[in-house]
Amino acid sequence: MIVFLRVGHMKEKNLRPIFSLVYAVLCLFCGSGIAQVAEASVTASTPDGLVKTITSEVLDTIKKNPDNFQKGDISKISQLVDQKILPHADIERTTRLVMGRHWRTATPQQQAELVIQFKDLLFYTYSGAVSQIRDQKIEYLPFRMVPDASDVVVRTKVINQGQIIGLDYRLEKKGDEWKVYDLNVGGAWLVQTYQQQFSELISQRGVSGLLEFLKQRNQKLANGPH
Question: Which Gene3D superfamilies match (predicted)?
C-alpha cells in the first residue's frame, strides 16, 4: 500500500486509509453479493447493472480457482484485473482528476506515463487485497437517475464480519458505455485522497519527481510480496 504523506517517511498509521479503501473496493468486486444479477431489468448497460455484472463475473472467476487468488498468484490476478475490472474503469480520467491543476503543467509524454504508472499502482494495490477476499457480502442500495444523466453514483454497503462500510461508485457515460472513475469508502473519495498526496509530492519534486517516485514504488511492489 502507498501513501504519499510525508514522502520518504511512510508510517503504518498512514497506510490504513488507503488499505481500507482498496480492500473495500475488492470486497465489492469479489465479495459474495447479497443482491444477484438475475433481475431481468438489470443489465450491464445501466450503471447499477454494470456494478452487479462485474461483481458476478469476478466472483465466478475466483470461485473456480480460489487457491490461485488467495495464494497471490500474480499472473491470475493480473488476468482477472485486466479482463474483468480495468475495461470498466476510466483510469485516464481518474489520473487527470488526481493530478488536478498539475495535469496541465505536465507534458503530453509525462501525462501518458502518469496514466501508466497510476494504473500499475492501483493494480499492485488490488493484487495485495485480492488474497484477503473471503466471504464478504454486498448490499446494493436503491438506485435512481434522471433521464439522460451522464454522471451518477451507485451506492452499496460492504458487510465484512459484522462491520458495515459504505462504498459508492461514481460513473460517467462515455458513448454507450458507463465507466467507473472514482470510489468513495466511508466518506473518503479515492480521487481526493490521492490528489492531496500527489500535490504534496509535486510541490517538493515536481511532476518529474512524482513520476520517478511512482516508478520506484511500482518496481518495488513488482519485485516484492503483494
Answer: 3.10.450.50, phospholipid-binding protein
